Amino acid sequence: MTFRNDELPLLEANLRDFCDRLDNPDFIDKVRHDYRIEDQSVIFFDVRPHWKNPKQKMETEIAKLRFFRSRGEWQLYWMRQDLKWHSYEPHSTEKGYMPLLQVIEEDEYCCFFG
User: Fold this and answer.
1) What pTM, to 2 d.p., does this model score?
2) What is the DSSP string of 4-42?
3) Which of 13, 84, 101, 106 is the most buried (most CB within 10 A)?
4) What is the pLDDT of residues 7-49, one digit of tens each?
5) DSSP state, 88?
6) pLDDT band for position 1 (cuts 50, 70, 90)
7) With contact defined as beta carbons under 8 Å apart, do 46 and 31 qualify?
8) Rounded distance, CA 107 to CA 114, Å?
9) CA atoms of 41 and 19, how far apart (whole Å)
10) Measured CA distances, 98 to 19, 26, 59, 101 (Å)
């Protein structure tokens, strides 16, 4: 199930603000952060020049939020070395997505930004 039209404007405004906070203006040509919405999930990724061809851009997924409407919960995932999404412990679920954005930004265990 996708997000409802009445949910999208606030969600997208908060997600854009989050990505803008992550970006360093001094390095915006080297790395920037963005997101995409896929069904009931939000996938965060960074965009940087490809190491072989700097004119080509590459995306690296760093975090995923998934909304479970039936439970009214958001779940946070991180991309492990096996290139699969894994639930992020100990902060895996919250009733809202804003606390999980804070967890990503703080990156206490260096899972999202290394």
Assistant:
1) 0.93
2) PTTTHHHHHHHHHHHHHHH--GGGTTT-EEEEEEETTEE
3) 101
4) 999 999 999 999 999 999 999 889 999 999 999 999 999 999 9
5) -
6) low
7) yes
8) 9
9) 16
10) 13, 26, 23, 5
